[in-house]
Specification:
Length: about 525
């Protein structure tokens, strides 16, 4: 496998105000699929995720719970990490913005920007939304409420430090225009340019005095560093950036190849963050991808409606890989995806149990029934084999083309098209008919070899998305996951190998009548907890 160089990617860091729901979890699974795929291709991947742990909302939640903010974020960060681990995500670093090295570096960054005149002291007066920790002008409100979350705002005034955004705005506009790949999908780029950059940027509030749960400003300790200068900088601080001299890890990995974030925070990542980097004289990330949301039956998830779906509940009912499959397969590239419990059951049965599970089970069972589990290549071919082989050997490049554009749902569909083609091949070759005639036994052996080889290649391509399932498949076929460079070659499965004599059911069909009462229990528990 050739080394294609470094690939540094990050997710947004999860805000520690509460347990992440499946919409938040989708992002880490999406990132993991990309990271695993890039590693398979031969990139030296560094994949970073973590938690954003400061701010007024957390201070208030901790007070309400009768614990310190640090105890509060320790609990939630532990919960976030447990869910990321439950989902089998292969991150290299889990950041916490309460980490001592991050806090130390943020203080240095703030001082550097102040010393060079990019940050100045002033006062903020405006309408403040506590849940979003944002100041708004009257004209920005929607129906008199916060434009981001729709809740009440209150007049507020406080002394604050500001960052001179306008100083760098023209440079950023020029950068975005000359780097079309920087903001993806393109619709997000148009929104940023037309709604924020072209009308003119206001200076950004980067410190607060009305709460204390944050990183203190070294030279003016009644101020704490305000959210974006603290949260966004994790992408550089935690790989060893330091204004006084950065680490080898930083030198190797920066600029980031990909920041994967939700569409609601594109503005912060494509306007504030690049401007901070310009002020620090650092190169900009190569790409910021704002993915859509996962909506519960068309609504945003909220506990008060009892419609929040959590990854651990899904895993309990369906398993890790089925949960991964659902979120990866159902999320379109640009528009919001929809999740309902009924849809999860339907996908589980049609795709995982029927198309994939049944294919693997039938192939192994026929090998055992007709040849005592021995899979051999006989060279007795037919025309129908050629189309199967063409589909199977062509799938890797199809997957690659989709993954290069971060069209992960389309990539996983291409892998399942390979499995669909195998099922069609069984119908075309009718092994049970071939088995009746001794003269057709070599042809039957070739058919089963072709199926085993096709499934082996399919498992190799599936691994980035459903790692446990891919490993289970190759174990049952008594082989190993194949090198990425060999996934477009047919015929490498060793003739004479013996498959397992007791195939494991990968995905047993579900009965909605049995699953839905458990779902109703989950919903009732949520509502009770909220009330």
């Amino acid at each position: 496998m050739s080394n294609k160089g470094k690939y540094y990617m990050t997710t947004a860091i999860a805000y520690t105000s509460g347990k992440p729901h499946i919409g938040n979890t989708y992002e880490i699974v999406l990132a993991d699929a990309i990271a695993r795929y890039k590693r398979a291709e031969g990139y030296d991947v560094y994949f970073q995720t973590g938690t954003d742990e400061h701010g007024q909302k957390i201070q208030e939640k901790a007070e309400a719970a009768g614990i310190t903010p640090k105890e509060y974020v320790d609990n939630v960060a532990g919960e976030v990490k447990a869910i990321w681990d439950l989902m089998n995500t292969s991150y290299d670093n889990f950041v916490r913005t309460t980490d001592a090295d991050h806090e130390k570096c943020v203080k240095k960054i703030f001082k550097k920007l102040y010393d060079q005149g990019d940050i100045y002291k002033g006062a903020y007066e405006g309408l403040y939304c506590t849940p979003c920790e944002s100041f708004w002008t009257e004209s920005q409100l929607v129906d008199g409420k916060c434009p981001d979350c729709g809740r009440e705002v209150k007049p507020a005034k406080e002394e604050a430090y500001f960052f001179k955004m306008s100083k760098y705005a023209d440079r950023l506009i020029d950068y975005i225009n000359t780097h079309p790949e920087f903001i993806q999908p393109v619709s997000r780029k148009n929104e940023m340019m037309n709604n924020f950059l072209l009308p003119g940027l206001q200076d950004l509030c980067v410190s607060r005095t009305s709460f204390s749960w944050g990183i203190p400003v070294d030279f003016d300790p009644k101020h704490v560093v305000y959210v974006w200068l603290d949260a966004l900088t994790n992408y550089i601080t935690k790989i060893g950036y330091d204004p006084d001299g950065s680490s080898e890890l930083f030198q190797k990995n920066w600029p980031a190849d990909l920041h994967l974030i939700g569409k609601d925070i594109v503005r912060f990542h494509t306007i504030y963050w690049p401007i901070f980097l310009m002020a620090l004289d650092l190169p900009l990330p190569k790409q910021v991808f704002g993915h859509p949301w996962l909506l519960q039956g068309g609504d945003k998830m909220s506990k008060s409606k009892g419609n929040v779906i959590y990854a651990d509940d899904m895993v309990r009912l369906f398993g890790v890989d089925a949960t991964r499959y659902f979120v990866l397969h159902e999320m379109p590239f640009e528009n919001d995806g929809v999740i309902t419990w009924e849809l999860v059951i339907e996908r589980f049965n049609s795709d995982l149990a029927n198309i994939l599970g049944n294919l693997v089970n039938r192939t192994i069972s026929m090998s055992n029934k007709y040849f005592d589990g021995v899979v051999r290549k006989t060279g007795v071919t037919a025309e129908v084999d050629e189309d199967l082989k063409a589909v199977v050997t062509g799938t890797r490049d199809k997957v690659q083309e989709k993954m290069d554009k971060l069209r992960v749902a389309d990539a996983i569909t291409a892998v399942f098209d390979l499995f669909r083609r195998c099922n069609k091949y069984i119908d075309e070759t009718t092994p049970w008919v071939l088995a009746k005639d001794e003269a057709d036994h070599d042809r039957l052996a070739e058919v089963l070899y072709n199926l085993t080889e096709s499934i082996t290649i399919g498992a190799g391509l599936l691994h980035s998305f459903l790692p446990e399932t891919a490993e289970k498949i190759v174990n049952q076929l008594n082989t190993t996951l194949r090198d990425y460079d060999d996934l477009d070659k047919f015929g490498l499965y060793e003739s004479g190998s013996r498959v397992t004599d007791t195939p494991e059911i990968l995905f047993a069909r579900l009965d909605a009548k049995e699953v839905m009462p458990k779902v109703e229990e989950i919903k009732a528990a949520q509502k009770a907890e909220f009330e």
